[in-house]
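Below is a concrete protein record.
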Amino acid sequence: MATNKKPAIAQKPMAYVEVGYRGYLLPLADAQRLIGILAGAVVAKKDYRGTDWVYEVEQPPEPINLSLDVVQPKQVVVVREEPATAHAHRPNAIGHEPLKLTGPAR
């Protein structure tokens, strides 16, 4: 459920930054610094081998997927989940009902 009340975070210039497939809302100045720092990073995997951690990087290195969107205060919406008890009457999956057996048992 969305409300019109703006969080304190929406009172200053903000940015939405995507790193890979995750998104983050943060102050614009911090977002610009973060993009600048991560622009030189490459995708790596951490793996435990024997007795030590190694960090695998493909050759040529794969760059990180980054994006930055400037966010206006009116675009920030606070989302609050309804209490779990409000959904207790709903089925777990739409269109799936218990199987009803009819006829004589064998």
Notes: Residues 28-38 form the longest helix (11 residues). The two ends are 50 Å apart (CA to CA). DSSP finds one helix and seven strands in the chain.
